Amino acid sequence: MQSSPLLLEEPIRMSSILEPSKPSFFPAMTKIVGTLGPKSRSVEVISRCLEAGMSVARFDFSWGDPEYHQETLENLRAAIKSSKKLCAVMLDTVGPELQVVNKTEHPISLEADTLVVLTPDQNKEATSNLLPVNFSGLSKAVKKGDTIFIGQYLFTGSETTSVWLEVDEVDGEDVTCLIKNSATLPGSLYTLNVSQIHIDLPTLTDKDKEVISTWGVQNNIDFLSLSYTRHAEDVRHAREFLSKLGDLKQTQIFAKIENTEGLTHFDEILREADGIILSRGNLGIDLPPEKVFLFQKAAIYKCNMAGKPAVVTRVVDTMTDNLRPTRAEATDVANAVLDGSDAIVLGAETLRGLYPVETISIVGKICAEAEKVFNQDLYFKKAVKYAGEPMSHLESIASSAVRAAVKVKASVIICFTSSGRAARLIAKYRPTMPVISVVIPQLKTNQLRWTFTGAFEARQSLIVRGLFPNLADPRHPAESTSATNESILKVALDHGKAFGIIKSHDRVVVCQKVGDSSVVKIIELEE
């Protein structure tokens, strides 16, 4: 049975902060998206990442070729099988990303108050005075006085690996810049960001389309992270493209908001997308520092009220090289949870960081602690008020299930679903207990072969806060006789007991369809 949650608005016994946290089967309700790469692609490390709490694996195609990522994905599948932990796959597009190309791969040192030329001629060698870029239209997009940032992670607060440039002169296709801070650019690829300037390149590039239609189709990707989403039309275009690729019509599109253009059209983008990724690295450059928190809070609130996942990036950058986050980073993770985030994306920290498993574990622990003081009562009232009256039938059932579970201090909510929509709506109201989504597969045919649905729907729950999917036996339909429902409920309860989520005398709230009716019932378990 659930204990009463702490509230930050109420007095907390300070010594209780020092008490160790109780172990839980679920590391946190907030999900963790881990980017797999050089330091996190072996079966052993991926298995440990899954055990630590990673529920979505992100494949970033701004580097590495499809063969490399395929090998990593095969290792992920082996790790899923051995650890028995479900994990979804996210393909992150490159989009209209501007890059500096350093074919020599030697570090490049840039000195403050000297000049450097940006040229579209990629045949030239990168030096301290000359940097080739992958965009021939840069000279037409910028003017004297404009700001350009270059680096692997752009500006992070530790400015030894990213550089701030000011446009000094435009000469033909070349752009001469004044270097504002000394830095060393390591590796072969760096991102180039021009602050608050429109870059005339498509959001879904030809290279992205090729990767999606080959690697994406081959691997039935669950999520498409649409980099540099600037307009709702970008999402519509991507969805139209996916609809022609067989099973990928089920792939969910997460719009990545990375600049002020995307921010300006946020509401329209949210209506079209399945979820939002707040890319605070690039956006943090386009926005004044004092406005970044405001965008985060407003964007997450809009996502929460729309019942669409909000995902936050760039929270523990320093853990790329360190075993502990800074105090500011630890607080940042907690605030993302208190703001209402569904998931946290780890990029460099797991891609090439020295401590990928430890990073996932620590972020999960911070999320779990923040969830204990999340004001669910206030949030619930806001969500119900925003939904308005009359509520839709499904919304009414979902909110009632959560209210009942909180009032009776249920240990879990079990929801039977075939599309996943009912379970996501329950999770929208942020219950304090886990929601176990029992996804019932459905048999479909295209007149050539039989297929079961359900796997996509189960994996796509893995990015929603508080939602934990189970793929049920296809012999149990979601809508059936009471006898069959009791049978599948027993399987779900036994599963919960086996993992220690449900104990004797606990109360459990069940949401299911019986015939044409949606039913919410409270069960008190016996010995």
Automatic annotation (TrEMBL):
Transmembrane segments: none annotated. Its cofactor is K(+). Its EC number is 2.7.1.40. Pathway: Carbohydrate degradation; glycolysis; pyruvate from D-glyceraldehyde 3-phosphate: step 5/5. One of its GO terms (molecular function) is potassium ion binding. It comes from the Eukaryota. Keywords: ATP-binding, Glycolysis, Kinase, Magnesium, Metal-binding, Nucleotide-binding, Pyruvate, Transferase. SUPFAM superfamilies: Phosphoenolpyruvate/pyruvate domain, PK beta-barrel domain-like, PK C-terminal domain-like. Residues 395-515 form the Pyruvate kinase C-terminal domain. It holds the Pfam family PK. It catalyses: pyruvate + ATP = phosphoenolpyruvate + ADP + H(+). It is an enzyme of class 2 (transferase). InterPro entries: Pyr_Knase (IPR001697), Pyrv/PenolPyrv_kinase-like_dom (IPR015813), Pyrv_kinase-like_dom_sf (IPR040442), Pyrv_Knase-like_insert_dom_sf (IPR011037), Pyrv_Knase_brl (IPR015793), Pyrv_Knase_C (IPR015795), Pyrv_Knase_C_sf (IPR036918), Pyrv_Knase_insert_dom_sf (IPR015806). Residues 30-360 form the Pyruvate kinase barrel domain. The keyword Lyase does not apply. Belongs to the pyruvate kinase family. NCBIfam families: pyruv_kin. This is Pyruvate kinase. It comes from Lupinus albus (White lupine).
